[in-house]
Amino acid sequence: MSYFFQLVVSGIVVGSIYALSALGFVLIYKSSRVLNIAHGQIIAAGAFITYALTVMVGIPIYLAFLMSMVITFFLAMSVERIFLRRLIGEPIISVIMVTIGLMSILDGLIYLTPFGTENFSFPAFLPVTPISLFGVSISWTQMVGVIVTFAMIGGFSWFFKKSTLGISMRAVSDDQLASMSIGISVPRVFGLAWAMAGLSAAAAGGIIGNITGINFDTLHAFGIIVFPVVILGGLDSILGAVVAGIIMGLIQQFASGYLDGSWGLNGTGEVMPYIILLVILLFKPHGLFGIHEIERV
Amino acid sequence: MSVNRWLATGNYFTSYKEEQRIFFTSLDRSAMGLLLLGLFLWPLFIQLDNKYMLVIDNILVAVVAVMGLNLVTGFAGLISIGHAAFVGVGAYTIASFARVMGENHILLTHAWPLMIVVAGCIGAIFGGIVGLPALRLKHLYLAIATLSFQMIFQWTINFMDFFNQGQTISVSRVTWVTGQVSRSQHYTFWYYAILGVIVLAGFAVRNLLRTRYGRCLVAVRDNDRAADAMGMHPGFTKVYAFALAGFLAGVAGALHAYLYRGVGVESFTLHHSISFLAMAIVGGLGTLHGSFLGPLAIKLLDLQVERLSEWVGNHLTIATNLATALKPLSFGLVIVLFLMFEPRGIANWWRIVRSYVKLWPFKY
User: Fold this and answer.
1) How many CB atoms are located within 10 Å of the residue B300 CB?
2) CA distance B6 to B17
3) Which helix (H) or strand (E) holds B180?
4) Would you say residue A171 lies in a domain?
5) Of A90, A102, A117, Cβ closest to residue B336
6) Which residues 6+ apart lie within 8 Å of A25 measured at CB?
7) How far is B102 from chain A (nearest CA, A)?
8) Are strands B175-176 and A136-138 parallel, antiparallel or unpaired?
9) Contact yes or no for B336 and A271 at CB 8 A
10) Which residues of B162-193 are buried (b: 16+ CB within 10 A; e: fewer)?
């Protein structure tokens, strides 16, 4: 039984990071209807910047974490400004393909740095001995990671519910023409959505980097696993992203905990989300919390 | 009024049938004939090194695959980020036969044209399955479905013992009427074989677009509601676009397997899917010319990038893995720049040059 609870705990840890990664993706989709295929690369960039600031420059890690969020905020904003601003009004298919190209560009740029191929790990700044409770253990990094994740998600929810900017972003996602007519600058909102997505991606990257170590493949995989999460949660729901992230984390941990090794299966945790994704697309395409206005063809 | 069969000064169509002709003038027809003749005959006069022959064969295999991608992304307007996986399905069909029946089984060595068709059909089945969500959903979701198919494919190959866990599964040389194809003739032989496939596939695609089924694809891309109102079934049309793309991808995969005499998962990764997309975009989405020009341009770019990184590697000591960095970088830049500045691709340049020559000395 304690094995089960151990899986639950690690599932929640992984899942909350998925939720944070998916959050940025949902932000961009919600405001501008763009699927950002390059999200994993932005997450990776956030982790690398955090690492570079802490280890190579020598800034304390909490400060470095915040700084990397700020840097990625402007990075994502400039990405939107340079590549996507001039595509506003183009068919959505070419905008998505631009993000595919962007993914390739960022891949190339990351491979130019040592981060592309080598592994790094953050210096330990929290107690190394894990917290143990009723036979279930959780490390301090994971604990702090989960807390930061939920704090960020809470912050974003507040931002969207209460602040003027957040409300104007929601307005744009609802109806672009109507929000233009009441004086909201739609391009600015798009830029802001990208910037916020970059910020949350950097936070996710920093946390993943602390938990699993810095490895481009792992970080990149977090960017792709975002798709099953957002499809399960419904593409444009922040609550959906959070719930689906945790569900996906649990499913992954259970799959690799119980299925691996039996019937000659291996690494089922990696593939299960994608199988679920295909099944959801077939039977419940708007996900758990997505709005039901998907156009049937 | 006598008609000049060689040069046209304008369009004088009096029926829809005339407008749908493949060759408008005899000039077009003979240029096409000459081009084909040249493509089939040049290896008789110029002996190229195996290394260069492999590059050419590689481009041709990519042409077959991109034709498929162009059907689904260009004509039907559905993004496929998993095209390399469909190509991989075709290649692994051949590999599975080699695995089950031994690589020298007569089906694989003698009946290889049949095997290529079988691989295509398996690819079509997988394409249809992945396209099934199209019955209910629009393209955004389909892009994600293809991406997840890519991930599932990679996992299946990497973790199954049957597929040698992604390590190379070898496929033997084939036999032709003249006996087993020798090592020195291998690449030239496959040049002809792939060229034959391309000619068949090219005419098939060109003719498909003249039929109601092909026009259905374009109609659904442009406005699926209008297409629905006119009695087409957009969902089935999309599924069938995916199946067709899967067929051509499967054929390309089988050709790849025979050409390299082996199948390994490293040729069918997400990175390859993106480079197929790059080829389709650079060539020109929704044009048949694009399927030829795109792979040519991207593969040549690829070679130049490799050369450049080798050259830099010789002069600077830091750059050990420059090629791995520069390749995705150049692909990405090419995709983004073409989408931003020339969304209609190289095929559009070809069209401009063509109409300039056709109308010379007049401007338009």
Assistant:
1) 12
2) 19
3) strand B179-180
4) yes
5) A102
6) A36, A39, A197, A226, A230, A241
7) 23
8) unpaired
9) no
10) ebbebeebebbbbeeeeeebeeeebbbbbbeb
What is the end-to-end Cα distance of chain A in Å, rounded?
A: 47
Tokens at residue B317, please?
């000591």
* Number of domains chain A contains: 1
Residue A265 within any structural domain of the chain = no
Instruction: Confirm or reject contact between A267 and chain B (CB < 8 A).
Output: yes
Q: What confidence tens digit (pLDDT) does each residue in A23-39 have? A: 888 888 888 888 888 88
Q: CA B326 to CA A111: how far, in whole Å?
A: 8
Contacts of B150 (CB under 8 A, 6+ apart): B81, B82, B84, B85, B270, B273
Inter-chain contact A278–B148, Cβ cutoff 8 Å? yes
Contact between residue B148 and residue A227 where contact means Cβ atoms under 8 Å apart: yes
User: Does A96 reside within a domain?
Assistant: yes
Cis geometry, peptide bond prior to residue B361 (ω within 30 degrees of 0):
yes
Average pLDDT over residues B95-106: 84
Q: Is residue A248 part of a domain?
A: no
User: Residues B85, B91, B94, B98: is their CA dihedral positive or negative?
Assistant: negative
What ipTM, to 2 d.p.? 0.84
Report chain B's mean pLDDT, rounded to a whole number: 86
Contact A98 B140 (CB under 8 A): no
Asked whether the beta carbons of residue A278 and residue B149 sit closer than 8 angstroms, the reply is yes
pLDDT digits (tens, 9 = 90+) for B228-258: 899 888 888 999 999 999 999 999 999 999 9
B220: nearest CA in chain A? A297
Domains of chain B: 49-359 (1.10.3470)
Output A104 or A57, whichever has higher pLDDT.
Answer: A104
Q: Residue A238 is encoded by which pair of tokens?
A: 């922040």
Encoding tokens for residue A131?
């917290």
User: DSSP letter string over A230-287?
Assistant: HHHH-TT-HHHHHHHHHHHHHHHHHIIIIITTGGG---HHHHHHHHHHHHHHHH-TTT
Residue ranges of A 61-100 with Cβ closer than 8 A to chain B: 83, 86-87, 90, 92-94, 96-98, 100
Q: Tell me which residues of chain A, numbers 217 to 246, contact chain B at a CB-CB cutoff of 8 Å.
A: 224, 227-228, 231, 235
Domain assignment of residue A64, given as a range: 14-226
* Dist. CA B291–CA B288, nearest whole Å: 5
